[in-house]
Write a structure and sequence with these properties.
mainly beta, three-stranded antiparallel β-sheet, globular
Length: 53
């Protein structure tokens, strides 16, 4: 498996099927995870407008 070297000053987005780890285990069949450095900052359906920043 490839190792990801997360850069602290870089923003990333990953698109695919997302299952959240909250109490609801909400699923986004076509979702996007927004990451800043090594922190997930937002998760949403891919058809929505990206958050500011």
């Amino acid at each position: 498996m490839a190792k990801i070297d997360w850069k602290e000053d870089v923003k990333y987005s990953i698109r695919g099927r997302v299952v959240t780890m909250n109490g609801e285990s909400k699923t986004h069949d076509d979702g996007i995870i927004y990451i800043e450095g090594d922190t997930i900052v937002h998760v949403q359906n891919a058809n929505l407008t990206a958050p500011d920043g």
